[in-house]
């Protein structure tokens, strides 16, 4: 049977949906399930889980599952761990807070940690061991939260997800972007490691964006999140068992969808199967013995797509998780998957676009830019960049676009935006974070307070606009100036509606188009910040809803935008007319 990409045109608002999307069962509810982010047992019969989107904790009695209690009042909870007195401590990075809850759902107090974004926290050596995803550090925080000491890092940490004590002098660290789990001493020495950076997940011993890991006497249990599996690895580095895995995405027996947390309680392992909004109980051999909740999720055509571009022949999609770039006709036929180039498999392509008739791919985890002279050509070449005569080693390239006097590429590993001449690869100018500028050496380099910058564009006035993701801001650097200006969205009523993790920026008719990923919307606004249109009614699967959109671009016609609706596993074509102008009726927070 000829492969085909499903395309649904003429949906409400004139929207076109490409790909089946992320569908619970056979129907698409207006409101999706919640996003469980952690679970544990407080005693043999009481299970506690926390959910990110709703900001709630749920108490479940294992012997009587109908006996459930909901605890409100949390904000974006992530990790949960047991602490003293039989309590659970819930980490809330968005507000810098730890909250303690008992098995009856009573809150026993909050500990605010100014300037810290705790993704996970647990007690260790009379202090709190905290993974701080903003500082990219592991901290030892005093019991009262007043002092925090940064532990020596074993390498350059990029996305610190969890840290769990192993013994009195070692802890288990899970750094998502390094694709590894390591045991680290208090002096920063790595004494055990599993996973290798920038290797395809199909290779033995590799992980993809692991979110959590816990030590057991005989080995380590790892939530290998974007491989949709949980692994048990012994202390010799041997894989003992795997539950779920690549090609086994879903909710059926032996399948997981985006597991983000694991915890152990004697001979019982709890798995937070986040994408399926459920909790699995498993034994020490990886056999599932009980399930709490079931959303019956099935996979679509794309998986975590990062970009969509209309081409003269149809469409081009960067299908990140599937490690390929897919082109297909306007009717969904003539599907061509590109999974390798120059003798090497693609690894997490974050962007695919057509510039001046050539197909350009950001092969991110391989740290390279690829160019093919035509959309369907089989001939590839690598774009190699240099600055002041020195090679520039890309680490994690994202979007590539034609902008200003050359092409722009954003590299989150370098925390930099590079403007280069595509004919020679010479970098004409670089804007980079203050801490990473030394990596680029001398030359046309501007140091700025950038953090995890994901995208940039240059307008006709030569102002550079940055999606300054790590600082939750849209920033402008007017030509000839040296200081960034922060732009905060304002609704029609004048109230502010701040960004959360803005990941892309584009120009549209003298205004800006920003992908506000954490708020699950795409925002059009004036250069001064006045919101003139919003797409994304709320987080969800419905046509007028989005779930963590990653990229929005204005098409060649100027009246349609393409949206990579990341967690919905689909891409959309949305008329600009579908953006709502009643901005003060659109919730800015995830709902």
Automatic annotation (TrEMBL):
Keywords: Repeat. One of its GO terms (biological process) is protein polyubiquitination. GO terms for molecular function: ubiquitin protein ligase activity; zinc ion binding. Gene3D superfamilies: TolB, C-terminal domain. The keyword Repeat applies. The keyword Repeat applies. Signal peptide: none annotated. This is NHL repeat containing protein. The lineage of its organism: Bacteria, Bacillati, Actinomycetota, Actinomycetes, Kitasatosporales.
């Amino acid at each position: 049977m000829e492969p085909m990409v499903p395309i649904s045109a003429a949906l409400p608002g004139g929207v076109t949906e490409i790909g089946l999307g992320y569908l619970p069962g056979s129907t698409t509810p207006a409101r999706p399930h919640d996003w469980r982010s952690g679970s544990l047992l407080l005693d043999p019969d009481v299970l506690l889980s926390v959910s990110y989107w709703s900001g709630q904790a749920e108490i479940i009695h294992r012997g009587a599952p109908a006996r459930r209690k909901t605890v409100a009042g949390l904000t974006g909870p992530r990790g949960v761990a047991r602490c003293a007195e039989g309590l659970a401590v819930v980490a809330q990075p968005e507000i810098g807070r730890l909250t303690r809850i008992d098995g009856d759902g009573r809150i026993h107090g909050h500990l605010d940690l100014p300037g810290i974004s705790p993704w996970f926290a647990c007690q260790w050596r009379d202090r709190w061991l905290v993974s701080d995803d903003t500082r990219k550090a592991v901290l030892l925080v005093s019991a009262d939260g007043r002092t925090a000491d940064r532990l020596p890092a074993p390498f350059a940490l990029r996305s610190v997800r969890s840290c769990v004590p192993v013994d009195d002098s070692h802890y288990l660290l899970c750094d998502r972007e390094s694709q590894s789990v390591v045991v680290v001493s208090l002096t920063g020495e790595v004494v055990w490691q599993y996973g290798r950076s920038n290797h395809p997940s199909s290779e033995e011993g590799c992980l993809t964006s692991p979110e959590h890991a816990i030590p057991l006497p005989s080995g380590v249990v790892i939530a290998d999140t974007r491989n949709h599996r949980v692994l048990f690895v012994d202390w010799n580095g041997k894989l003992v068992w795997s539950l779920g895995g690549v090609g086994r995405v879903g909710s059926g027996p032996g399948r997981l969808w985006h597991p983000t947390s694991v915890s152990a309680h004697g001979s019982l392992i709890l798995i937070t199967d986040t994408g399926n909004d459920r909790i699995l109980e498993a034994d020490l051999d990886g056999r599932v013995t009980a399930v709490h909740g079931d959303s019956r999720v099935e996979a679509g055509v794309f998986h975590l797509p990062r970009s969509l571009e209309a081409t003269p022949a149809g469409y081009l999609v960067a299908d990140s998780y599937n490690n390929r770039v897919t082109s297909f006709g306007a009717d969904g036929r003539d599907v061509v998957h590109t999974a390798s180039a120059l003798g090497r498999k693609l690894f997490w392509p974050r962007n695919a676009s057509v510039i001046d008739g050539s197909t350009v791919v950001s092969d991110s985890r391989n740290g390279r830019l690829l160019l093919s002279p035509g959309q369907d050509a089989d001939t590839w070449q690598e774009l190699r960049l240099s600055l002041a005569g020195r090679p520039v080693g890309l680490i994690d390239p994202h979007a590539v676009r034609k902008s200003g006097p050359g092409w722009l590429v954003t590299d989150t590993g370098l925390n930099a935006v590079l403007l280069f001449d595509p004919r020679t690869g010479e970098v004409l100018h670089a804007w980079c974070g203050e801490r990473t500028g030394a990596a680029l050496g001398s030359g046309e380099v501007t140091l700025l307070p950038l953090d995890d910058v994901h995208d940039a564009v240059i307008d006709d006035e030569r102002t550079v606009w940055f999606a300054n993701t790590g600082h939750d801001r849209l920033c402008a650097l007017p030509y000839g100036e040296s200081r960034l200006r922060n732009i905060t969205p304002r609704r029609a009523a004048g109230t502010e509606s701040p960004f959360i993790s803005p990941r892309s920026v584009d120009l549209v008719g003298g205004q800006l188009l920003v992908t506000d990923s954490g708020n699950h919307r795409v925002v059009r606004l004036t250069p001064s910040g006045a919101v003139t249109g919003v797409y994304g009614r709320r987080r969800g699967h419905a046509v007028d809803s989005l779930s963590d959109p990653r990229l929005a671009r204005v098409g060649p016609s100027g009246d349609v935008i393409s949206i990579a609706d990341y967690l919905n596993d689909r891409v959309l074509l949305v008329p600009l007319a579908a953006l709502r102008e009643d901005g003060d009726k659109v919730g800015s927070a995830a709902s």
